Amino acid sequence: MDTPTPLYLTRQIRAIEAAAFQREPSYAVMTRAGRAAARWLDGVAPGGGTLLFVAGPGNNGGDALVAATMLHRAGRAVRVWLLAPPERLPADASQAWHDACVAKVPTDILPPPAPAAGMAPYVLPAFPPRMSAIVDGLLGIGLSRAVEGDLVTVIEQLNHAPVPRFALDIPSGLQADTGVAQQAIRATATLTFIGAKPGLYTGQGRDFAGTVSTDDLGLPLPDGVTAEIMLNEPACFAHALPARLHASHKGSFGNLAIIGGDAGMCGAPLLGARAALRLGAGRVHVGFLNDAPPAFDVQHPELMLRAASQIDRAAMDAIVLGPGMGQGTRAQPWLDLLNAGTPRTARHVLDADALNLLAQARTPPHLNEQDVLTPHPLEAARLLSGNIAMVQTDRLAAARALSKRYGAVSVLKGSGTVVAAPDGRLAINPTGNAALATAGTGDVLAGMTGALLAQGMPGWEAALAAVWLHGAAADRLVAQGAGMAGLAAGDLACAARAVYRELVELMQGSPGL
Ligand SMILES: NC(=O)C1=CN([C@@H]2O[C@H](COP(=O)(O)OP(=O)(O)OC[C@H]3O[C@@H](n4cnc5c(N)ncnc54)[C@H](OP(=O)(O)O)[C@@H]3O)[C@@H](O)[C@H]2O)[C@@H](O)CC1
Ligand SMILES: [K+]
């Protein structure tokens, strides 16, 4: 199994670059970036037409110029639009411009976009005839402020061109550390240099970056740079997946209770419980807060349904609090039981209204690194006494702050779910898609997390595995034609089971489930 992919913040990429520039000329590194880009474009960009390279005022434009020159020399039809005065380019980009001119690459120098939109809108020239793709070398990790003025119009026009767009390093306008973008190139695919960046995978990154490939340009990590953020891949959690020995019984795979289901919301804990069953929990109980709990689940009579008050808390290995729980008087005592001084054995997953109650708690409950919080951005904002914009502006920082404040693993849901541990570990999940934007998928995730905790996985690995499997299940369903629109949360459990089985087979080399 591959080692997990590290994600680097801009300051770390700069440190790697700086160390490299001590050993070799910076233009040699740019040449490698341009060559990597040329090779990549040769493989992914449609042939038979002109590749339009759009180069900006910095070294990202330099990468584009080097790639365009190499492809031109190799006989591909290219054209470069330089949206900056050549005499003001930084040294390496200037060298790349010089080399492009010497090689007689077809180029046009366009007026630099003004920082504030003028009276007349900035209109790009007509695209080259038979243009087959646009290569985005406008802005890279040197993005220092929001995209404004004429550049907004330029990006809009490029985004409207009816051809694929290929971004070099990062789609122009996307913030590499956070995945925030007001306006950015909407790329079909991105080739990122030196190391992958978190902003390509979370927030708006997934929508703008398309398929991401990485070329490390052969640069080693210098002393003092360590990966603080990982891409959540099986290598991050597979070692902790529960083993399933032949001589085992239902007690070997844990007791899980899902507590919730106040009046009118009985479906939520059932969704979680069904998913937990499919992820291997030994016994799954559902404790309903409403007065008339259903006697059994027609779809899954294996589940044990009862009033929440009849759940034997001490017998549980894991408890999920929150699906359909509401914030009524029957819900609060379940949170109070988490106060310091109240003994408990079960690890807890807190979801939905359990999180809203947690946010209102006067005395913070006693949570630890074996417990998992699964907020969406609004719940996270409440937990951090902030607002959604604050959370979404830096999802990594928000997830880290949640874990620090509450002492538990936190799973900040949304595009590019972020998982944080109280000790500072961070991961971004690459699986999942917009089909998950439907009611009940959060209940399913909470149930899956509870199932893995009940089977003894540590909090960090259980959260990573549940998030990855949940997203991979949605990806599989969509690939099979179930969605994007219309995927039902209840569809996820069996797909997650199939993905889980394949993962275990991959790990063990034989059917494990
Ligand atoms: N040197 C090398 O050998 C290597 C370089 N590499 C490549 O270089 C890239 C980094 O290059 P870079 O540092 O020059 O920054 P880049 O992203 O091109 O942009 C800077 C320019 O944009 C401007 N600008 C910023 N924000 C703006 C905004 N909102 N709206 C408008 N303008 C804005 C900014 O202006 P300023 O902030 O200075 O006013 C400045 O002029 C990196 O992503 C990778 O592709 C790698 O291949 C490794 C080898
Ligand atoms: K770019």
Please characterize this protein's 3D structure.
- It contains 16 helices and 18 strands.
- Helix content is 36%, strand content 15%.
- The radius of gyration is 26 Å and the shape is elongated.
- α8 packs parallel to α16 and α15 crosses α16 (492-508).
- The two termini are 19 Å apart.
- The longest helix has 21 residues, at 459-479.
- It folds into 2 domains: 6-227, YjeF N-terminal domain (Rossmann fold, 3-Layer(aba) Sandwich), CATH 3.40.50; 252-508, 3-Layer(aba) Sandwich (UDP-N-acetylmuramoyl-L-alanine:D-glutamate ligase).
- The protein is α/β, with parallel strands linked by helices and 513 residues long.
- It has an 11-stranded mixed beta sheet with strand order 1-9-18-17-16-15-14-13-10-11-12, with helices on both faces. Strands 4-3-2-5-6-7-8 form a 7-stranded parallel beta sheet, with helices on one face.
- The structure holds ligand NPW and potassium ion (K).
- Potassium ion (K) is lined by residues 60, 136-140, 167-172.
Which key features would you list for this structure?
single chain, 513 residues, alpha/beta, Rossmann fold, UDP-N-acetylmuramoyl-L-alanine:D-glutamate ligase, 2 domains, 11-stranded mixed sheet, 16 helices, binds ligand NPW, binds potassium ion, Bifunctional ADP-dependent NAD(P)H-hydrate dehydratase/NAD(P)H-hydrate epimerase
